[in-house]
Design goal:
By secondary structure, the chain is α/β, with parallel strands linked by helices. Helices cover 54% and strands 14% of the residues.
Length: 336
């Protein structure tokens, strides 16, 4: 663990864990004790319940899948794709919970890579790379594998939770996996710069803007905001930006690392950040299209999502029922 990470993320000392911490700890403990086959069956059952009980997330997932796959994905095919997405997300949490108990041999056996030489080449320059990932598959497995097998130190930024004790517990869990965490905030940029220069690989989820700011880009055919952090860090440090994704590949995981996005200074800083972020958005599109059902983005990410979700809520409130598939299809058509 680096001094940078230790200074950036103090862990609060608490005598009594809160109810939510107890719930998450209990779930993680159960997942670690279950055989993988039993856990897989349990995650499928949980995902089916979530599909039925979370209509707004189901609605946003339908829009997201149509955005990636095209408006011709509808009816039963759309419903099956949404169910697959819920199942993939449930598996993500199960896999995270059981990672800590796996030995190095099991972590290595459950992971394969494509394009990992791009990371090695970046490390050879003396400045660690920035891995820019979508919320897809299970990136914690890749972070754990990188820390344990090739021995590369890994650090990431996470948005703090409202419940401090739960956030502290989640940070500690990831540290046990070998992944240092910096809370998103005013000190995160300086911490990441120090980490990159110290040879620590920075992993940033880059397909959704959190909080204020962001860079306007075209992403799957519509303008939205994505984080400008990867571009700004690369311009300030000379670090390579490597678009990457981690896919659930049968019972295992597969990491894919793409060649670096061009991140040289060409003009004003703001214009360079916008250009690099747009290039990164297009690279992320290609990674996501390879497995759109594994893209765990179940929140509004475009302006039209927010508007459509508001209409969806009003219709459900007024009708006292959930719209059928034909009604949802008429509402959720996304810009082409």
């Amino acid at each position: 663990m680096t001094d940078t990470a230790e200074q950036a993320t103090p862990i609060a000392q608490t005598r009594r864990p809160s109810a939510d911490v107890i719930l998450y700890r209990s779930g993680a403990a159960l997942a670690r004790r279950l055989p993988q086959s039993v856990g897989a069956a349990l995650t499928r059952a949980i995902s089916k319940s979530a599909y039925r009980l979370l209509p707004e997330r189901r609605f946003i997932t339908e829009r997201r899948l149509q955005r990636v796959c095209g408006p011709d994905l509808e009816g039963e095919a759309l419903a099956e794709a949404v169910k697959a997405s819920f199942e993939s997300y449930a598996r993500y949490w199960f896999d995270c919970a059981r990672l800590y108990n796996l030995d190095d041999a099991a972590v290595d056996a459950g992971f394969s890579t494509e394009g990992f030489h791009h990371i090695d080449e970046a490390m050879a320059t003396g400045t660690a790379p920035i891995l820019a990932l979508p919320h897809l598959g299970g990136w914690e497995w890749a972070g754990t594998w990188m820390a344990r097998i090739p021995g590369y130190r890994v650090i990431s930024v996470v948005e703090p939770l409202r419940t401090t004790r739960l956030f502290d517990w989640m940070v500690e869990e990831r540290r046990r996996m070998g992944i240092d965490i910096v809370p998103l905030g005013p000190d995160s940029v300086s911490a990441l710069i120090k980490s990159l220069r110290a040879g620590q690989v920075v992993c940033l989820l880059s397909d959704r803007q959190v909080g204020r700011g962001g860079v306007e880009v075209e992403f799957f055919g519509e303008r939205t905001l994505l984080p400008g952090g990867p571009a700004a860090l690369a311009l300030r440090t000379g670090a390579a930006i490597l678009p990457a994704a981690v896919y659930q590949d049968g019972p295992n995981h597969r990491g894919v690392v793409m060649p670096p996005v061009s991140a040289e200074r060409q003009g004003r800083l703001r214009a360079d950040v916008a250009r690099i972020t747009q290039d990164l958005a297009w690279a992320l599109e290609g990674l996501i299209r390879a497995a759109p059902e594994q893209w765990h983005l179940m929140q509004p990410n475009w302006a039209s999502d927010t508007e459509a979700l508001s209409q969806f809520r009003q219709q459900r409130k007024g009708a006292g029922r959930q719209p059928n598939q034909a009604e949802r299809s008429s509402q959720q058509k996304v810009p082409g």
